[in-house]
Amino acid sequence: MSDDSLVRQLYGEPTITERHRHRYEVNNMLLKPIEAAGLRVAGRSGDDQLVEIIEVPNHPWFVACQFHPEFTSTPRDGHLLFAGFVKAASEYQKRREVKSLNGNAPIRVHCLSGVLV
Fold first, then answer.
1. Which CATH superfamily is domain 6-116 in?
2. Which residues contact residue 54 at a Cβ distance below 8 angstroms, ignoring those fewer than 6 apart?
3. Where is the Glutamine amidotransferase domain positioned along the sequence (predicted)?
4. What is the pLDDT of residue 51?
5. By three-state DSSP, how is residue 58 classified?
6. Domain coordinates in residue numbering, the chain
7. Global pTM?
8. Which of the two ends of the chain, N or C, has the fewest CB atoms closer than 10 A to its terminal CB?
């Protein structure tokens, strides 16, 4: 994994092993346009041939993976990616609450079922 990636910080290891159950992959011929669009390859397969993890740099939480983190999760012990996502969401909510206390109105997002705050 890339040393400066979010997933590298989460795992705390340069190399990981995860479970796959498909044959989908990122087309390596499209890597330059993908990276030019702002995505960064954060992890590759052991043979360095396949993209395993993509991130958006400078985004609080944008991680896409080819493996299945749900396969190693339990209701009691969630996968590191899920725990990292929940932590990022919690930190985002705290920042919004601070803005609200400072007199700034909270951001409202409209959806089909109503208003999310």
1. Class I glutamine amidotransferase (GATase) domain (3.40.50.880)
2. 26, 34, 39, 40, 41, 42, 63, 64, 65
3. 10-87
4. 93
5. coil
6. 6-116
7. 0.73
8. C
